[in-house]
Specification:
mainly alpha
């Protein structure tokens, strides 16, 4: 299966998500948050750094739960910004 390349806007959305998660993680370690979310620390690192700009829905949901974030807030803050 060939994946369609991501648009610059989609990449930016992934970077926004990563920044939000990193900020919400605060002083907690990646290992601690990843363990609570049930994902690997490497997966969390890739999401936070934008190297995995389109994580699976259930991965994002697990991270949101582990960090006490609202999925609604994530959607609004990470939504694609329409071109002007």
């Amino acid at each position: 299966m060939v994946r369609t390349p991501l648009t610059p806007e989609e990449r930016e959305r992934g970077e926004r998500l990563g920044r939000m998660l990193r900020t919400a993680r605060g002083d907690r370690s990646m290992v601690e948050v990843a363990m609570v979310a049930g994902i690997s620390p490497e997966t969390l690192r890739k999401i936070e750094t934008g190297r995995a700009p389109t994580p699976a829905f259930f991965t994002v949901a697990a991270l949101a739960s582990a960090l006490g974030l609202s999925m609604d807030e994530l959607v609004v803050r990470c939504a694609l910004v329409p071109a002007a």
